[in-house]
Amino acid sequence: MLTVLLLSAGVLGGIAPPEPVVAATRASAVLLPADLPADTAPEPVGRRPAVGQVARMTAVPQPAAAPSAEPAGSAEPVPGPAAPPAEEPAPPVPGVLPLDVDAGGSAQVVTVVAASAGATTAELTAWELGETGWTAVLGPWPARVGSAGIGAAREGSTRTPAGTFALPEAFGRAADPGSGLPYRQVDAEDWWVSDVASPLYNRHARCAAGTCPFDERAGENLLAAGAVYDHAVVIGYNSGGTPGAGSAFFLHVTNGAPTAGCVAVERGRLQTLMRWLDPAAGPLVAIGVA
C-alpha cells in the first residue's frame, strides 16, 4: 500500500500545473529580437482579435547564439532590407486667371471682377506668374467701379471699360509711395486731356491754367481733382487716343462712392499694389464680369 502511494505521488508530482494563458491585448506593442523567425512577427498596428477569439501569443524569445570564435572585424556585415524609394509629392495644380485673361508675356495681372454688368462694386486681386501657374499674391480686395457698371466705355459715360489693358505709369498729388512703375508727382499744371478735338486726347499734358492748347473745360486738372488722386495708376485703355472712345481711366484712391469710370480701392491697399507692380513683368489689368 505504501509503495502504491509513493508511486502515485511520484507520477503526480512530475506533472507541472498549466501556466495561465495571458492574452496579448496589443500584440503590436511587443518588440521581438532581430533573430526571431519571420513567422513570429507581431500583428500589424491597430489590428485587434475578433470577439470570442484569443489573440495570438507572442513567441518566447530564444537564447542568444554563442559568440563566434572568429577574431573581431573578420565577420562581414549582413546587409539589412533596402529602404523603399521615397515618393515624390504630386506637383500642384497650376493656377488659372479668372475672366479667361490672355496675359501674353505678362507675369503680373490685376483682375477686377464684378458680379454683374450693372454692379458698382467689384473684387480686385493681384496675380503673379510662377512655375506652377498663376498665384494670387494680393487681395481679393473690395473695389468701386463706374456708376454705370462695367462694359463698353465712351467719352461722357460713367462706365468702367471691360477688357485687358496695360498699367504703364503712376502719378499722384502726394509723394511717391515707392511705386514700382514710373511715378509723377503732379501740381497745378498737370492735366489729363479729354478734349476729343485735340491731338492730345487721352494723354497727360502740362500747362498753366488759361494757356493750355486744348479745351480746359474738357480736361481734368490732376491736382484739383482732390484726394482721390493722391495716388493713381494709369489704366491703358484707348492708349491710341481714338476720339470719343473714352479717356482718363485710372486705378485710384476710393472715396467710398461709385466712380465716373475708374477703379478705386482703399489708400493703403493701393500703395501696396503700386509697390508690387514691376515694369519688367509687363503688368496688366483685366476688368470684367463673372
TrEMBL record:
Any matching Pfam family: YkuD
A molecular function GO annotation: transferase activity
InterPro entries: LD_TPept_cat_dom (IPR005490)
Active-site residues annotated for this sequence: 252, 262
Name assigned to this protein: L,D-peptidoglycan transpeptidase YkuD, ErfK/YbiS/YcfS/YnhG family
Domain L,D-TPase catalytic stretches: 113-288
Region annotation (Disordered) ranges: 59-99
Bias (Low complexity): 59-77
Known pathway: Cell wall biogenesis; peptidoglycan biosynthesis
Superkingdom assignment: Bacteria
Start-end of Pro residues biased regions: 78-95
GO annotation, biological process: cell wall organization; peptidoglycan biosynthetic process; regulation of cell shape
Assigned keywords, A-Z: Cell shape, Cell wall biogenesis/degradation, Peptidoglycan synthesis
